[in-house]
Specification:
By secondary structure, the protein is of the alpha/beta class. The protein folds into two domains: about 170 residues, Rossmann fold (3-Layer(aba) Sandwich); about 45 residues. It contains seven helices and nine strands; from the N terminus they run βαβααβαβαβββββαα. Strand 7 and strand 8 form a beta hairpin. The longest helix is centred in the last third of the chain and has 24 residues.
């Protein structure tokens, strides 16, 4: 039954999806404008292929690149402060977030602080951000949090050793890059935990009291794909036959 106020459904302006879509990242970033981008990532990805691929893709766009690789397993206010300082000193314009939810959330925090005064913890809560963050391309290398398309960021406040949630349309990335080829090099443990994360989010969305027709449709499809993926993996390993319809 529909409620009296209807429903809302927010998505980023552009989603690039599919094997090889990473190649379109440079053109998408150029459309956002700017001459120097800050790449927010972690030390593992810094040594891996995606960072070099991004540098190659930007070579012919006229956009220079600064790299902040300081994000740890969890995004902290310290990472936001360090990244914000680099962003300002290098006179960057857009931001590229590369990684899982931690890197993307840290990048969101840096983007917020590039256009808003004070400290990142000033914006804890719902709809507290005054000005939209700088343009951002979020490149997901895991399949768990969906931070690349969400309007929320979870950042640890090290003063209180507490995780704070910033939820605002002004922190939604302009472009989300979801290239499955970026996930194949993940360690098995990361692949498994990311899959459970995605499944948990899907179940939460379906049983939530705020569930609506659009979220219900996406949640059920996500659960189905998780089941299909698990059975297919077992079938490939010779442990079972995939009988999914």
């Amino acid at each position: 039954m529909l409620n009296n106020i209807g429903y809302s459904w927010g998505m980023p302006s552009l989603i690039l999806y599919g094997p090889g879509c990473m190649s379109r990242m440079g053109a998408a970033l150029k459309e956002l404008g700017g001459q120097r981008a800050l790449l927010v990532t972690d030390c593992v990805l810094l040594k891996a292929g995606p960072v070099d691929e991004i540098k190659t893709l930007l070579k012919h766009t006229g956009i220079d690149l600064e790299v902040y690789p300081g994000v740890n397993r969890e995004p902290e206010d310290v990472h936001v402060e360090e990244g914000s300082k680099m962003f300002a000193e290098a006179k960057c314009d857009p931001i590229i977030a590369l990684g899982g939810g931690s890197c993307i959330d840290a990048a969101k925090g840096i983007g917020v602080m590039a256009t808003n005064p004070g400290k990142i913890w000033d914006y804890q809560g719902r709809d507290k951000v005054k000005f939209k963050m700088v343009p951002m391309v979020a490149i997901a290398t895991t399949a768990g949090t969906a931070s690349e398309i969400s309007r929320a960021a979870v950042i640890t406040d090290t003063r209180r050793t507490d995780k704070m949630i910033i939820k605002d349309e002004k922190v939604r990335p302009n472009v989300a890059v979801c290239d499955p080829l970026l996930t194949v090099s993940m360690p098995p443990s990361v692949t498994a935990s990311s899959g459970m994360d995605a499944l948990t989010h899907a179940i939460e969305g379906y049983v939530s009291r705020e569930c609506q027709p659009m979220t219900e449709m996406v949640a059920l499809r996500a659960v189905h794909r998780q089941r299909f993926g698990a059975l297919w993996s077992r079938a490939q390993n010779g442990n079972a036959r995939c009988q999914c319809s």
